[in-house]
What we know:
The complex is a heterodimer of chains A (116) and B (107). Chain A is mostly beta strands and 116 residues long. Chain A is built from no helices and eleven strands. By secondary structure, chain B is mostly beta strands. Chain B has no helices and eleven strands. In chain B, strands 2, 4, 5, 6, 9, 10 and 11 form a seven-stranded mixed sheet that branches.
Amino acid sequence: EVQLLESGGGLVQPGGSLRLSCVASGFPLRIFGMSWVRQAPGKGMEWVSTIDDTTTARHYADSVRGRFTISRDNSKNAVYLQLNSLRADDTALYYCARGFSTFDNWGQGTLVIVSS
Amino acid sequence: DIQVTQSPSSLSASVGDRVTITCQASQDIATYLNWYQQKPGKAPRLLIYDASILQTGVPSRFSGSGSGTDFTLTISSLQPEDFAIYYCQQHDNLPSSFGQGTKVDFK
């Protein structure tokens, strides 16, 4: 069974940083692109970032480019999202999703709240 | 960037109804259009990818159609477990983008 388990969310002050983790199981992570998608409270979905299977290509939404960094460690079956210079409008539930552009499995999300 | 617009934003329906949700892209995206279902407090679930291909395990009452800029998700006979929010997503170009969602609730 495919499982994605996110962690690392929490309450952080504006300008602060967090590192989100997504641990995968039930499939060979090394052959899949992986993505992060976020959902602000009561709002719709926003694609945030994607990394390909070889780590050659990393893509970011304009709203996070230069502040967020996606990475992966296939030996640990994990994908990460480093969040820097956080702003109030980054407050959201952050989902890890399997896929480069079609997201066929999702984790349950980790909540990031940016507030003073 | 490609925008996707869903309609309606909400609809009320009864069990057994045929439900249709539309998604319009701001430019030609061929068939690079996915549909997801999200229930309260749950992660989204992929229903249909590339406009018309049913994801494994999804009931056959769900179907998708369209190409270019206009797409449709149809539920042929609404079931109690189908009350949810539905999102379309274009993946022709990055940044990928989602529609604003269609909430299907009980009439």
